[in-house]
Amino acid sequence: MAASDRSADLTPGLQGCAETVVTRALTAATLGSGTVDVYGSPAMIALMEAAAVAAIEKHLGPGETTLGIHLDVNHKAATPIGLTVSATATLVAVDGRKLTFEIEAHDSKERIGEARHTRVIVDRARFEAKANAKAAST
Prior knowledge:
Blueprint: H1 3-9, E1 15-21, H2 28-31, H3 41-56, E2 64-75, E3 84-95, E4 98-106, E5 111-123, H4 124-136
Antiparallel strand pairs: 1-3, 2-5, 3-4, 4-5
């Protein structure tokens, strides 16, 4: 898919969602981002990125993928083990290969986080070859 074709499919307003149940494996204490058994910020960030990927994945061309390059996140409230957390990402800007999202995360009680996230579209094979070459040179 040519970039011009892709830009027609990737338009602001596209949304994606991701959801998880908070388990001990997703807590700050387990992930090393704190000492409390509540939903950890690293887990929330991963969920937010998954929501962004879900928003645009089916609109990418053959062989394309996206990489997260920037995330400005605010984790506003604690979520205990057992509650479900969902994230919704909305594509708000497309600038060539650069995609910008606004993301909100909620548990069943309240909004727990928000973020502005930037991803860039890359050719997967070319990116992986470059990464592998870097590994081989060390």
